[in-house]
Amino acid sequence: MYMKIFNGCLALLAIVLMAGGGCALQEDLVTVNSRVTNQSKKTEALQAELARHREEQVKSEETYRRKYADLHVLVNDLREDMQGLRGQLEESGYYGRQRTESEARREAQWQTMEKQLQSSLDRIVRLEAYLGMEPSEKPLSSETEAKTSNAGKPAPKQTPDGLYATAKQRFDKGEYEDARQLFQALLEQYPKSENADNAQFWIGEIYYHEKWYEKAILEYQKVIENYPKGNKVRSALLKQGLAFSNLGDEANAKLILKELVRKYPDSEEANIAEKKFKTFQ
After folding, report:
1. Do residues 231 and 208 make contact, with C-beta atoms less than 8 angstroms apart?
2. Which of 199, 228, 232, 264 is the most exposed place for a label (fewest CB within 10 A)?
């Protein structure tokens, strides 16, 4: 628009100068025209510069928009990463607690397995000794062994009642190896004790609890043969029959339980024996 106004003014000036006439005016017209041309070039240069600035501004704005978009994406990614890390921390805490509980259960299971293993090893050693074989390894040392071999000095001798009471306490606590040794010590030291038949029966019970039924049957038989008037004969017969049943020998189990019912028909042991008969096929 500025160029149109400027050209109009130039044309009007030319008319005026021509009206004034003369060669001098022609020379002035050339000069003015030259100046106008120079001014036109400057105007075009200015317009080009403005266009370049505008283009750079547009590019700069696009660059800023791209950078803003990139930053927005980065912030979102960081937020998602933080949420993921928070979830992992919570999950780690949960599984850490689970692991602690699981490790405690495994530790308890290991302790139980170790006790069962040691009991089996002790049973094997006793079986080897019973069969006259050289033991493959030594059984677990017990509190009784520690007491009887304390610095090479034997433990003080107890009374029959005291020895029996101590052995029975060990049995009730499940300390079968200690109880067995104390019951055997009672039988060796006080064979005529009024608790001798009971001691012999509890030795059979220890083998029964350890599922060494063959040995338990033999120990119960000692009660029946050595103490026929004792109060443990009925119980020994019953447990003998149950031991044969656990071994899968129903024939001998039936014979012994029938003998129990025949000799002691009104006893509680006979009642249990009759109930056991119903389970046989």
Report:
1. no
2. 228
C-beta of residue 197 within 8 angstroms of C-beta of residue 230: yes
Q: What's the pLDDT tens digit per position in 174-210?
A: 999 999 999 999 999 999 999 999 999 999 999 999 9
Contact 225, 201 (CB under 8 A): no
Residue among 189, 202, 191 nearest 156 (CA): 189
Q: Under a CB-based contact definition with an 8 Å cutoff, are residues 256 and 237 in contact?
A: yes
Helix, strand, coil content of the chain in percent (nearest 5):
80, 0, 20
Handedness of CA 113, 116, 120, 121 (dihedral sign): positive
Instruction: Return the structure tokens found at 60.
Output: 């700069």
* Of residues 216, 211, 214, 212, the one with CA closest to residue 200: 216
**How far, in Å, CA of 189 to CA of 135, rounded?**
26
Q: What percent of the chain has pLDDT over 90?
A: 42
Could you give the CA distance from residue 253 to residue 274 in angstroms, rounded to a whole number?
12
Question: Mind giving me the DSSP string for 28-88?
Answer: HHHHHHHHHHHHHHHHHHHHHHHHHHHHHHHHHHHHHHHHHHHHHHHHHHHHHHHHHHHHH
Strand partners, 153: 150
pTM here?
Answer: 0.49
- Domains of the chain: which residue ranges? 145-277
